[in-house]
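Continuing the batch. This is chain 6 of the set; chains 1 through 5 are on the previous pages. Same settings as before, nothing changed between runs. Recording input and output for traceability.
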Amino acid sequence: MDSVIEILTAVDAGGLIILILIVVGLITAVKGIMIVDQASVKIVERLGRFHKVARSGINFIWPYIDKIRPFLSGGRLLQAMDLREQIMDFPPSDVITRDNVTMQVDAVVFYQITDPMKAIYEITDLGYAIVQLTVTSLRNVMGELSLDETLTSRETVNTKLRDVLDDATDKWGVKVNRVELKNIAPPNEIQDAMAKQMKAERERRAVVTEAEGTKQSAVLEAEGDREAAIARAEGEKRATILEAEGTAEARERIAQGEAEAL
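Output for chain 6:
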């Protein structure tokens, strides 16, 4: 009897071990399957070192050996890295122009991660780095221009900023596609002066337009009088010619009648 119990106990212990192994195997297999969303990637590290870039679709990893390296951007830890074009909006910041005018400028940057490895291993916090780089570059570019140039050459500023940012972020695996200045706000006193200047310019244009209208009206009136005088002269000339022709014809008929009478 004791031997039977020992055999059953051994069988139960062996079955339990097999069951545990099966469960562990299933859990390991499930953990080894990783699905990555479209237009996203994940960085896989094996034993603390870079192993591969897991791209969209089904990926297989070794549980307990491989792990996903979190991606830090803007102070947030993300498991996946978005490869789509992203928009980063900046709050207004103070800049000083070449002629020492302080104004507030805000911008928006359109960028895209092109090299996930560089984006995660070459910079600690990509989002924060882009913000700081953009603010610094914006101040440098605006500092090279006068107030009038910043207000009238927005496209030039956008192009310069894009070139500077694109070159600086290349080592981070980032492509800067566009930079757009949203608002340029000079100090209130300069805005008032600009408003007065615009008002004066509008008034000057109104005076010039009125003068041009008066001039054109006078020219048209003079042309009308000249055309009328020419028409009257032509009429008088025609009348004189017709009268002379009538007189000559009358004399000719009188002479002809006298000749026939003889």
